[in-house]
Amino acid sequence: MTHPLDHPIWTALTTKHQALAEGGARARRYPTAITPFADMPEISPQGFAALGAMMLGSEIAVLFTPDPVTAPDEFKVVLAETGEQMIGSPAEVPAGDVEILTLGAADAADMVALTTLTKPGPFSPRTHELGTYLGIRVDGQLVAMAGERMKPADYTEMSAVCVHPSHRGRGYGQILLSAVARQILARGETPFLHLFTSNTSALALYRRQGMEIRRRLHVTVLQKKA
């Protein structure tokens, strides 16, 4: 591993999120109620065996790796795509008269509902435990959110940036992304994020805001065959 972000999941599970890690030296994962992310220090039969031993029933494992993953026969590849890893602080956007709220366990159901609707990536009832999540409510409804997900060493991933379709075009996403980035920078850490290569509109937006592509990663979703 030449850089902490080359294997962001493994690095997070052996540094800032070590207390959350399930598994051991061959493979680790987050609790599935938090996120399906998992990784191995090296892609090997031993690593896959250790990963498979942790997976029950229809559970999935999501891997972010520098190279494509070829899984053993006992696994089914549910998804294999490429993603871009972007790094840097997005342009600062003032909140103006928009009230930014810190979200927590009491907001979990609303957070899951919004992410289910907008599909920014996997989000579970306990995903908010990974870091600070911020949101905007209009007439009590959660209409926008963004937060912190993986924390590999001195880097923090910005994630779950989403806005309800009926409240888009008001800058809520940019306001929240800017606020999340500021809190990461205030801790002396570096913000980064992931998005699928096919998401060209988001890629263009983040570039306009000053973020840069660091590298391309392979996103592989695995499930054990019945």
Describe this structure in words.
The protein has 2 domains: 8-84 and 218-224, Aminopeptidase (3-Layer(aba) Sandwich), CATH 3.40.630; 86-213, Aminopeptidase. The longest helix is centred in the C-terminal third of the chain and has 15 residues, at 172-186. It has helices at residues 8-13, 45-54, 108-118, 172-186, 200-208, and strands spanning 22-23, 28-29, 38-39, 60-65, 75-87, 101-103, 133-138, 141-148, 155-163, 190-196, 212-224. The strands form 2 sheets. The chain has an 8-stranded mixed sheet with strand order 4-11-5-10-9-8-7-6. A 3-stranded antiparallel sheet has the order 1-2-3. The protein is 23% helix and 31% strand. The model has no long low-confidence stretch (mean pLDDT 96).
Brief descriptors of the model:
single chain; 226 residues; alpha+beta; Aminopeptidase; 2 domains; eight-stranded mixed β-sheet; three-stranded antiparallel β-sheet; 5 helices; 23% helix
Summary of the model, kept short:
The protein is α+β, with helices and mostly antiparallel strands.
Helix content estimate: 10-25%
Based on CA atoms alone, the radius of gyration comes out at 17 Å
Structural class: alpha+beta
Write down the CATH class of the largest domain: Alpha Beta
